[in-house]
Queue: 3 jobs
Job 1
Amino acid sequence: MLDPDDCINETCPWSGKPVAADSLMEFNGDVVGFCNPGCRDKFAAALDHFARASETKTTGQS
């Protein structure tokens, strides 16, 4: 379980609202917080999208 005390940010990068304890995720070895699970999930989906786009570019697939 991720600890809010380890969070590197105090406000949600999407909304600017305070970080909530139930909306944390690990990113590049750091704990990043969001104001709600929806913002956290939106961030995770964006990461996945860009990872897939990068893989497609690397392999030359479209």
Job 2
Amino acid sequence: MSTLHIGFDDTDSPKGMCTTFLAYKVVDYLKKQDSELLDFPKLIRFNPNIPWKTRGNGAVSLKIKTKNPTKIKNKIKNFISKYSDTKNGANPGLVFYENETIPLNFIEFSELALWQLINRNQAKKFASKNNLEIFYIGNGQGLVGAIGAIGYQFNDHTLELLSYRKQSKFGKERQLSSKSVKKMQNKTFPHTFNSFDNKKSRVLITPHGPDPVFYGIRGERVDSLLKATKILETKEKLAGHMIFKSNQGTNDHLKNTFTKLTLKPYASGTITGIVLSNPIREKGGHVFFSISCNGEKIHCAVYKQTGISLVALGLIKGDKICVGGGMRKASKTYPRILNLEFIDIVNLKKNMVKSNPLCKNCNKSMKSKGQNQGYQCIKCGKTSKKKTNLEIPRKIQKKLYIPDVSAHRHLSRPITRLGKINKKSKFDDSSLWFSIYEN
């Protein structure tokens, strides 16, 4: 029996299909063959700031044992051709690697793809150097995610149960009871997360595009995900589901600490610095300010939709903060800007202002007698020559501020996962992690 790693990416477009749906079809095929799946399918989200990314920038890999790898490879190539939306811009990439273990260079490639911009030529060179068997359609951009998904190593993980529609329903409006989603979240929390935004009464588990996914439930345990599906209410008859092991909800893309060399367009990471000037709120409610770190000036933006723009507006010059996000490329109008995904306040400077002195007898603020003439209490006549320093209480605290749940990216670590590391998701091929529903 050969151990075969299979990675693929970029099979979807904004107009249809989905890389996870291709995985669902491949697994359905493999389970009917003389093949053994060794782990959950991996759904790995890479750097979300890549300008040409597919939805969610997610790639999939599978690890199997098979007696006939050549047959499996040929069949999966056919699946790639059949279930990729190439007519609408998909550039699918497929990679095969036969070995029990994953070499270090695969892992390093994957780690870089989490926060850097890696182009397709780098992926093709990697494949050539390592004698990888590859297959792609179009420009081969999908090879980046395909290699990265094979090389990815979990230190923390979540699970996602994706439920798929029958083909006759592709592109049609999804009908899912909002009340049942809220009920599901209440009954399965904290073992599921980011399912419903109570603040905005908004369902977060259904995509909005024409792809085959009906809903996706994110969580920590297989039993919780399966329980959740039984609570949800819909009149649509679904095709089936599959559970993926994923890096969603881990902040994986923000593990890089920015340096002068890595502050590049489209890169993701974190940096700690001192606020250089009081933030400015512009039209639309977005807030902009700059920080300094080791002599480097970094422009930062906090968009209103995140729900933390008022936190940003509460900063003052001299505050020490740690921020994370993605670097937007400079344009003719704007400089290079770090779009923030969180603000962690390390230290708050005292907000001192000059104020008219307070009369100690009357506890009233004195009035100016005129330019350079000092101050006088209009009640008792007591005088003072100078203004006093007054401390204005800060409205923000030394703590971590993260966006509203509706503004979370796939990789954003929700508040329920702060400090949590999930290493235990035992794979059992006899469980209901994969299911084709009866017609």
Job 3
Amino acid sequence: MLIENIKIALNSIKANKLRSILTMLGIIIGIGSVIAIVTIGDSIANGVNKEMQGYGARNIEIYVTNKNEFSTDENMYEVSSVEMSEKDMLSKDMLLDYENAFSNQIQALSIEESIGQITLKNNRFKSNINILGVNKGYKDFNKLEMLSGDFIKENDINNISYNAVVSDKFIKEYFGSKYNNNEVLNKNIEIEINNKFLNLTIAGVYKFKSDEYTDKNTYSNILLPYTTAFKFNKKQVYFQSFKVVPKEDIDVIKFQLDTNTFLSSYYTHNNSYQITTFGLTSLVNSQNDLMNKLKLGISAIAGISLFVGGIGIMNIMMVSVTERTREIGIRMALGAKASTIKSQFIIEAIFISGIGGIIGLILGIIIGTIGSNMMKYSSSPSLFAGFIAISFSMAIGIFFGYYPANKASNLDPIEALRYE
């Protein structure tokens, strides 16, 4: 009997193609709008998240900052700034304690000490370089790929060595085609910066990472032990900042709070300076929440057309019941049960809304994909949203088709047979 009702429903839709299509329009527009909005929204969110990941969304930066104490004087506020001294900075022991305390949570901890930027010339060749003192964790933090040689070792740091790691970009710019990445190892380079000379030995070559924001004039980093950089700068080894990235399975927000709490314990009695942590994860989460709320709000507005479409289905089903009153009477006279008549019209309503939902889904994906591509984001159609949309459209068919179907099933067979 179910198969028979399905055949009757399909034949009714075929017999009234134009009317059925016009009835579906509200469902098509509503579902299409929602799917297009969700597709574009997800594409933007995924694109932004991907860009944030490229900038290190899980990275956390830790700074020693001034507490910015305010004093009142004739209703004016003045910042009380105390010059930072070594006792206000982070020491090697503090960082070692921190690493030990969070050893099972830290993926990489990066330290940097800048020496400066210059253009280094070698006869007709030249390269823009940025000289940095770093630790072993710098490599993992920045996901550097070594092409030859070794990165900075703990022994280099302890012995204040002048071994350096350079990029393949620097090799090509400074040496031309004279050496490849392996042949350049153990070669010496002499750098003059701030009227002081720095003689370095190339111990390793890493792959220079470029992106859409990188141009040919971008500075290439030359990396050496941070202890060597501090010595060159004639400074004691104290840090005003460092960077850390937690392991993949660690809650970044909680890790950031725990980091702040741990390091702030060293500054309990410091009246001028404090620990400040900064991460992009909370910003990414806020952006995703905002995007989800925006999608929900716009989808709710687009959902009005679904309601209108549902009323259209109810209206056309009422007309269909009226037109087929005599047919209903004949079926009842031949023994059809009220439940069979009811299911016949509910199935027809489901088919109308279901077909409209499928057409709307396809149009929504097409429009959403075009919109995403126009904004230069990779399209991300949601299968889950599509499933919900089709299910919802069929639910609308059941909801708005029930009353006409119930009316049809309650018709008096004799009165129905007399209807003209």
